[in-house]
Write a structure and sequence with these properties.
- The complex is a heterodimer of chains A (321) and B (170).
- With 321 residues, chain A is of the alpha/beta class.
- Helix content of chain A is 35%, strand content 14%.
- Chain A has eleven helices and nine strands.
- In chain A, strands 7-6-5-8-9 form a five-stranded parallel beta sheet. In chain A, strands 2-1-3-4 form a four-stranded parallel beta sheet, sandwiched between helices.
- In chain A, strand 1, helix 2 and strand 2 (71-76) form a beta-alpha-beta unit.
- Chain B is an alpha/beta fold and 170 residues long.
- Chain B has one domain: Rossmann fold.
- Chain B has helices at 2-9, 23-39, 100-112; strands spanning 15-19, 54-56, 88-96, 117-125, 137-141, 148-153, 162-167.
- In chain B, strands 2-1-3-4-5 form a five-stranded parallel beta sheet, with helices on both faces.
- Chain B is globular.
- The chains are: A alpha/beta (321), B alpha/beta (170).
- The interface between A and B is medium-sized, with 25 and 22 residues.
Chain lengths: 321, 170
Amino acid sequence: MIGRHLLSAQDLTSADAVRILDTAGELASVTDRSVKKLPTLRGRTVVTLFFEDSTRTRISFELAAKRLSADVINFAAKGSSLSKGESLKDTALTLEAMGADAVIIRHGASGAPYRLANAGWIQGAVINAGDGTHEHPTQALLDAYTLRNHLRSGQGDLDGARVAIVGDILHSRVARSNVALLRTLGAHVTVVAPPTLLPYGVQAWPCDVSYDIDDVLPHVDAVMMLRVQAERMAGSYFPNELEYSRRYGLDSRRMALMPSEAIVLHPGPMNRGVEISAEVADSPQAVVVEQVTNGVHVRMAVLYLLLGGRPEELDLEGADR
Amino acid sequence: MSHEILESAKGVDDLVILGIPTRGVYLARRIAAAIQEIEEIDAIDTIDGQGVPCGSLDITLYRDDLRLREVRALEPTNIPPEGIDGRVVVLVDDVLYSGRTIRAALDALADVGRPAAVRLAVLVDRGHRELPIRPDFIGKNLPTSQSETVHVHLTECDDDDSVTIAQAGQ
């Protein structure tokens, strides 16, 4: 049973994660038909509260909620009272007053979703859609789902799968969530990055660390390339993009080092020519587009599992069943 | 029951048998196998590798009592590749009680396609309907009180084939 909120991939047990992935698998088969809408969350209101720019995550959540017949309100920082300086608390109280059943939040500050969920401002479920450099749990879930489809025929966990995560580990919430979740599911994770792009304390993470991508690639079942996040890089972490690309970018020469059936993931948006070459991005081993499709199914599963059952505060009223 | 279904459908050409998880699916497979035996047809390729198209229909996402209980796990939905448009769909479930499950199943079917007709086959009809729903094919009528619960066991998922009535809470 997953909790009331989804704030961090670290909160999920292996059984929780497998349950979300199994539910996503069933929902994928249901949405494979002409009428894609399900009546399950009819009458529920889902708010997407995005303080940072995002295309695919917001659209993916919106589509997932709409496929389940929930009403969706998009609340973006630009063009709302947030740009007039309203605080997170006042925004949350407004949403609560409007009766939001779930709030999907992306925020530049790590921990903002936790604050929103635990400050007592709102009753509804809180889903973290990326907070600062902390976590992005639904991305990790959709990556795990994609990996499971390719490496384990869509069944069970990822026990024994070998996954390398390459790139800007320091600023990447995707990497943090993925390391935690893939480890929980039994996979063996290696993070690969220049020393300047590894966070302090990475030795304590449940994964191996390497500085040399060519050493790691021959021994992986999947490699996840991370975007070089120019917008988060105030200092100089590497001399220039060309050097980064030469030492850590995935091109066809490096892809030839990988086992032939290994797959390439990227959370998007891709910087073609920096961390991934165009040939690799367009190769059959790259599953980037599939990740987007899977994202909708995984987010539907999360929304269903968080909102589909009995709301906890109604325990007494529902007790006759 | 298989004979009755065959008779009313006037042959197997347009027949699709859909079980409602969990035990309805096993019953649907048994009915499909029985029909195949009666008609002496060879197994052609369907999703279950059986002659008569047979599948499952999960209705969890269409239930009207979702908000009254803990969130439920989803079960597989397998619609035969031929689809259900213009065919006669026979829904199969183990116990018919309030009729709400069947109501949900009808909603689910409407989103999958437009069958020529929908029939309902149940192993046990225990009465106490809450909706205007009536089965077409009944294995056994089992008068019960609402304080009792009916348990159906099938060898596919339990140890034996049996139907038992128990007092609630047992």
